[in-house]
Amino acid sequence: MAKITLDNLAHSYKPNPATEDDYALKELNHDWVDGEAYALLGSSGCGKSTLLNIISGLLTPSQGRILFDGKDVTRAPTAERNIAQVFQFPVVYDTMTVHDNLAFPLRNRGRDEAYVAERVNEIAKMIGMEHMLKRKARGLGADEKQKISLGRGMVRKDVNALLFDEPLTVIDPHMKWELRTQLKRLHHEFGHTMIYVTHDQTEALTFADKVVVMYDGRVVQIGTPEELFERPEHTFVGYFIGSPGMNVIPARVEGATAHVGGAEIALGQGYGALSGKVEIGIRPEFARLSQSEGLPVKVRRVEDVGRHKIIRADMFGQEINIIAGEDDRISPDMNRVSFDASQVNVYADDWRVQGAAA
């Protein structure tokens, strides 16, 4: 395992980048703590795979350094970094059996056959392929081949880090849940530093100790699932995390009050003069529909999703979402919405503003 340090790191695919917009990965400084599990989360094209490939050595950054336990490995080849990487689509040796595919990284490092057999059987059981060890990989389906790729990534105990680039894309939904569970068990058992790239918030939030949310080539927040949910540091985090995401509403903020459409919304904290694009953010979970309290809304539809109801509504021409309990009754005369003041966040130019006690 290793502590991974990103020092003034940035990357552009252009030969002579002149502005920040020319960078696919904007400047980043961060320490990946030895032994923690991280998820890189964001939409396609946000820079997740670029960052992962820099860490693995498949890509040399345009600027900055990457260090493993303080040693500069920026220009070191992948083989010298002692990492294992699993890609989005399966990479297997078709002419080999499942057993020999899993054994390959260990044999390549001269481990004795008794240890190889023990470890291969252990991993095969973990990925549900112990009954297929003698089969050639050529005749297997895409999900089975990807399980081999995952197994080969996990078979070594001595790696500095395990890197996963959207590894469950071709896996069926039920097996996804099982493999995520196995990855977490592996992490708890051996303490590998794990970095897992995904665009799926469920995968990220259920797998990682810390989630790294990326947007437009920039890391906009690193935090626990609870921190990302309750205090999104950027409006993208609020929008991307949660289902449905955070309501983001243009507002004018004065002290401990937000003004929206001529009405007032109480805030849990006070704020000084704000410039730029000012908005408030409130999770649908912290909004409540009623007959008499709050701001006027027009309910467009109610979606019953089993565990709760999602209310789609309009407030001063702004679409908002409200979550109600599974057993809550929604009547036609419920046309007001109120917000939990302690859960309202304030944003200026998309970044969260820290308030003071009101």
TrEMBL record:
Domain ABC transporter: start-end pairs: 4-241
CDD domains assigned: ABC_Carb_Solutes_like
A GO term, aspect molecular function: ATP binding
PROSITE patterns associated with the record: ABC_TRANSPORTER_2
UniProt keyword terms in alphabetical order: ATP-binding, Cell membrane, Membrane, Nucleotide-binding, Transport
Pfam families from the UniProt entry: ABC_tran, OB_MalK
Protein name per its UniProtKB record: ABC sugar (Glycerol) transporter, ATPase subunit
